[in-house]
Design goal:
Elements lengths: L8 E10 L2 E5 L4 E5 L12 E8 L5 E4 L11 E9 L3 E5 L6 E4 L16 E8 L5 E5 L2 H7 L11 E9 L3 E6 L4 E5 L12 E9 L5 E4 L4 H18 L3 E2 L7 H8 L3 H13 L3 E4 L2 E4 L3
Parallel strand pairs: 3-5, 13-15
Antiparallel strand pairs: 1-2, 1-4, 2-3, 4-5, 6-7, 6-9, 7-8, 9-10, 11-12, 11-14, 12-13, 14-15, 16-18, 17-18
């Protein structure tokens, strides 16, 4: 029976030195500490703390590079690679990069983390005992996060995306607060692991934050109006949208709520740049 498993820091004893490294043991099982994984010379019978993982051949090996992360703990780790139909690899502080399986990532690959993004993960083993990284669950975030003070309303705040859903995006701020960005408060869906900055629009009673990635109304109206004009110019001066259009169609095309869309249309009509006829909108020059 195997007692030593990948994903844990263990205190093992040097059984003997061989050409490729040190053979370590817990008295029942032996693992190899390669020379390039040893941070110093070791003596026979010396006790040493090592982290266990599988090498490329699937064999259990040891390293004296001790990560902050092991099975049962959570930490932020950096994404170093993304492989289509497989998942992303993260750096936990050892030579081998660890896979976050596509099964643990959003269905849409466009919101998978990019290289340099950071994920809040734990380590786990699959059915074959192979080491994997797994993103944090909501229960853990609730336990680990702090209650935000009321004074944060209208303040700018930054955070890392730890969960994405159709209705919105969930972030953990650098202060340890939980935040939620409703789909109507973002133009594009941020990636899992992406750093975002937004404005606190509500501090809820439970200490969580509602955050907006959209600018203040006046600034946002100008930006939204420019996006509508650009769309019209790219579509021969007309579009099948008006202030009566379906909210979902507006959101799918412009990444705007219907209210924001109507404000932008109103601005453009006041400026004499557009007009609406028969459920469509036209550039005035057309």
């Amino acid at each position: 029976m195997s007692y030593l498993k990948a994903g844990y820091i263990e205190n093992l004893t040097v059984a003997r030195k061989i050409e490729t490294g040190y053979v370590l043991t817990d008295g029942k099982q032996e693992v190899l500490l390669h020379m390039n994984e040893a941070s110093k010379e070791l003596a026979d019978q010396e006790a040493v703390d090592v982290f266990l993982y599988q090498d490329k051949k699937g064999q259990l090996v040891a390293t004296m590079a001790l990560p902050e992360l092991e099975i049962g703990t959570y930490d932020w780790v950096k994404v170093v690679d993304k492989v289509k139909n497989l998942g992303v690899f993260v750096d936990i502080g050892i030579q081998k990069h660890i896979l976050v399986s596509k099964d643990e990532l959003p269905l849409l690959e466009k919101v998978w983390p990019d290289q340099g993004d950071e994920l809040f993960v734990t380590l786990t083993l699959d059915k074959k005992g192979r080491l994997l990284a797994k993103p944090v669950t909501e229960d853990i975030v609730v336990d680990e996060s702090d209650k935000a003070p009321d004074t944060l309303k209208n303040e700018t705040i930054g955070g890392q995306v730890y969960r994405t859903t159709k209705i919105g995006t969930f972030i953990l701020t650098e202060e340890g607060y939980r935040g939620f960005i409703h789909q109507s408060e973002r133009k594009e869906e941020p990636r899992l692991g992406q750093w975002v900055e937004g404005r606190v629009i509500e501090v809820k009673e439970n200490g969580t934050l509602n955050v907006s990635l959209r600018p203040l109304k006046q600034e946002g109206m100008k930006e939204d109006a420019e996006a509508i004009l650009e769309y019209l110019e790219e579509h021969q001066g007309e579009m099948p949208f008006s202030d009566k259009s379906d909210p979902d169609s507006i959101r799918d095309t412009f990444k705007l709520s219907k209210a924001a869309f109507k404000r932008a249309l109103g601005k453009l009509m006041k400026e004499g740049k557009i007009e609406q006829r028969g459920g469509k909108t036209f550039l005035k020059s057309k």
